[in-house]
């Protein structure tokens, strides 16, 4: 029995509310169970120096957790004077995951920055950030299409992410914090709606896993991403 009472292949409740901020070109609040992330997308008519003049667009991301997004207060990274290694790793993951679903030629020479701020954490914050980040990105791109700034949709396939792991010896979908902290094996699966893999992060701690278990986790991830992609499309088309 999972701590939440969910079935092994059952996602937490997912909701995506769009247009939650006034100024960003695209924004949403994604809630996956008790993990809540504010995602905003900002369009800028510039690109990093290493692609300037190439005609290619760029999508990047920043990630952060509010001090009381967890059970005890965390010190703001700005106060410490630098980002922690975990933060840097996660925002790089978000950026490269979102870029995998972008036709950078169609986007044109402009940059879209996706900011993901964790309001409340209960496991799976990076997965929620990627999933909500795509929604914010899509809403920003829709504005470019509407104004004629781009002539074809540069978002070729929805990108979403979900965690899976082995908890109490069984493969489970969408780990919350109690499961994540106790799982012998856990992983993050980033995929497109069409089922193409972008990145898989798997690690074992206190246990090992075999090929059959890996296949079980992949099957669960495909199911979860399919459900998340449906929620994404419903949100952007609402």
From TrEMBL:
Phosphate binds at residues 86, 124-126. The gene is rph. The keyword Transcription regulation does not apply. Phosphorolytic 3'-5' exoribonuclease that plays an important role in tRNA 3'-end maturation. Removes nucleotide residues following the 3'-CCA terminus of tRNAs; can also add nucleotides to the ends of RNA molecules by using nucleoside diphosphates as substrates, but this may not be physiologically important. Probably plays a role in initiation of 16S rRNA degradation (leading to ribosome degradation) during starvation. Coiled coil: none annotated. One of its GO terms (molecular function) is tRNA binding. Belongs to the RNase PH family. Homohexameric ring arranged as a trimer of dimers. Keywords: Nucleotidyltransferase, RNA-binding, rRNA processing, Transferase, tRNA processing, tRNA-binding. GO terms for biological process: rRNA 3'-end processing; rRNA catabolic process; tRNA processing. Its EC number is 2.7.7.56. Residues 10-140, 157-224 form the Exoribonuclease phosphorolytic domain. This is Ribonuclease PH. Pfam families: RNase_PH, RNase_PH_C.
């Amino acid at each position: 029995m999972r701590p939440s009472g969910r079935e092994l292949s059952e996602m937490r409740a997912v909701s995506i509310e769009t247009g939650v901020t006034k100024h960003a070109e695209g924004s949403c609040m994604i809630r996956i169970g008790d993990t809540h992330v504010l995602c905003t997308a900002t369009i800028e008519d510039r690109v990093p120096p290493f692609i300037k003049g190439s005609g290619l667009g760029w999508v990047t991301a920043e990630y952060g957790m509010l001090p009381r997004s967890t059970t005890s207060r965390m010190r703001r990274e700005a106060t410490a004077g630098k980002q922690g290694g975990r933060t840097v790793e996660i925002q790089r993951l978000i950026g490269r995951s979102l870029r995998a679903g972008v036709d950078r030629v169609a986007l044109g020479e402009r940059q879209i920055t996706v900011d993901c701020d964790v309001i409340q954490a209960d496991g799976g914050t990076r997965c929620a950030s990627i999933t909500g980040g795509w929604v914010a990105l899509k809403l920003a791109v829709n504005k470019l299409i509407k104004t004629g700034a781009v002539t074809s949709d540069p978002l070729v396939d929805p990108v979403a992410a979900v965690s899976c792991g082995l908890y109490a010896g069984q493969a489970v979908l969408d780990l919350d914090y109690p499961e994540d902290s106790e799982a012998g094996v856990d992983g993050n699966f980033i995929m497109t709606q069409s089922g193409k893999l972008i990145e898989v992060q798997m690690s074992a701690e206190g246990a090992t896993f075999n090929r059959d278990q890996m296949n079980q986790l992949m099957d669960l991830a495909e199911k979860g991403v399919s459900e998340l992609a449906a929620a994404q499309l419903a949100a952007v088309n609402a």
